[in-house]
């Protein structure tokens, strides 16, 4: 069937664009001589992870234990949880996963290490990677002396933990004022990450994992410094309006939300049948990822969603209002694809205007 025959609102994935995006990033990793471990929190769909793996990816990244369980059930065997994991129930689930797959997760404190060491008593050691804070002001280690203390503590007091290496996330690249500053953030984050690697080497550690992210800094063929072993972009697979703004065009935007025009109440206002519960209320207003409104209307010039209610998207554009009619369907390129995908149970895969497949968004709602 034609995808325009689908009931709305609904998620549409363009197969050809998605496959081109997968190849784009795999080619980048290959050129730079590093492994690609895509972050799956963007799409949350095992079938897409398997496509990335078939294209050459070395394992996957997830954000939560629940996402790891979904991906493992689908046959993914090498999973890194890029997050600090805490809690007895979560540790039990990781121990169970470790019986059949290679699974590792994030660490950034002695306090957390003690909890992990206790939970993994009498079973396979926990495989951990220490997070380094590189400017995002989120989790991760800030001070070198605290890093040294953690390494000493792991060596002396944590026999149930195996340390693989370090990881970082240069999320501040989203707010870079231009491409040159994005490159500077990218390089500075790598240098800081590698600085901690050198400290560890001086203490007798030989890390197998030195992992960096994120998508904005991987779009422009920036250098990957010697010593980095893998990259973890995620949004690139489907892209969105804000990442397309950074890239410079919408050519890589593989995902849209199909919506229906349900009202044209004024000379310039148009209402669509999807709101915050279908595209989120998120905006991006700073840096290279800045974009107007809460979603871009595909195939129309400079038409964006001005505001949303729970079930309504509001557009103010006279030319657009004069062009569409009640009952017409339009496609919205979301501002931020990751939370948008978490709002739907499934996505329809389209090629040449026809629905060719249906993906269950199996990682949806896996917050624990």
Shape descriptor: elongated
Most strands sheet: 9 strands, mixed
How many structurally independent domains?
A: 2
Q: Which class do the helix and strand fractions yield?
A: alpha/beta
Based on DSSP secondary structure assignment, what is the total number of beta strands? Answer: 17
Name of the CATH homologous superfamily of the largest domain: Alanine racemase
Mean pLDDT: 98
Describe the structure.
The protein is an alpha/beta fold and 368 residues long. It folds into two domains: 3-10 and 242-360, D-serine dehydratase-like domain (Lyase, Ornithine Decarboxylase, Chain A, domain 1, Beta Barrel), CATH 2.40.37.20; 15-237, TIM Barrel, CATH 3.20.20.10. It has eleven helices and 17 strands. The strands form two sheets. Strands 1, 10, 11, 12, 13, 14, 15, 16 and 17 form a nine-stranded mixed β-sheet that branches. Strands 2-9-8-7-6-5-4-3 form an eight-stranded parallel β-sheet. Helix 3 packs parallel to helix 4. The longest helix has 24 residues, at 179-202. The chain is elongated, with a radius of gyration of 22 Å. The two termini are 37 Å apart. The mean pLDDT is 98.
Which key features would you list for this structure?
single chain, about 375 residues, alpha/beta, Lyase, Ornithine Decarboxylase, Chain A, domain 1, TIM Barrel, 2 domains, nine-stranded mixed beta sheet, eight-stranded parallel beta sheet, 11 helices, about 25% strand, elongated
